[in-house]
Amino acid sequence: MKVVLLEDIENLGLAGEIKEVKSGYARNFLFPKKLALAATKENVKLIEEKTNSIVKRTQKRLQAEQAKKEQLDGLIVEIKAKAGEGGKLFGSIGAQDIYEALKEKQIEVDKKSIRLDEPIKQLGEYEVTIALYRDIKATIKVIVHSLNEN
Question: What is the CATH number assigned to the segment(s) 69-146?
């Protein structure tokens, strides 16, 4: 019996593929768990349309995130913070502070996408990675100044 897979199934195939399986396996396992549909012309067409719309949506998102990466790469964000002698900060600069500094520049990113190994605790320049989508990452420069400096 030919079926159209709705989900990736280990040792069988990927979602959207048409596979030949035993009819008992299809009726007793794949169909009840909604893992596959019978490979009728209508079902095949429906799956192809869904797959095409998902691909188009993914491509649009990739293009949008690539444009955002180009906007962010090399961007300099300056943050002022209270610091003591030797450039040690009172407190620290974290992802929330960087998020707010970007927001002031009218740049929207997900706060969770800002990658800091550890909070910034010293004055100076730091490279910060922002994970946008899948393997698209942007790198910005964060410069931390003392509030006392002009």
Answer: 3.10.430.100
pLDDT tens digit sequence for 55-107: 898 899 899 999 999 999 999 999 999 999 889 999 999 999 999 999 999 99
- For CATH 3.40.5.10, the residue range(s) in the chain are 2-63
Residue 3 CA neighbour count, 13 Å, CB half: 25
User: pTM (2 decimals)?
Assistant: 0.67
Measure the CA–CA gap between 87 and 35, rounded to whole angstroms: 59
Give the mean pLDDT of the chain: 92
Residues of the chain with CATH 3.10.430.100: 69-146
Dig out the tokens for 99 from the structure. Answer: 């998020």
CATH class of 2-63: alpha beta
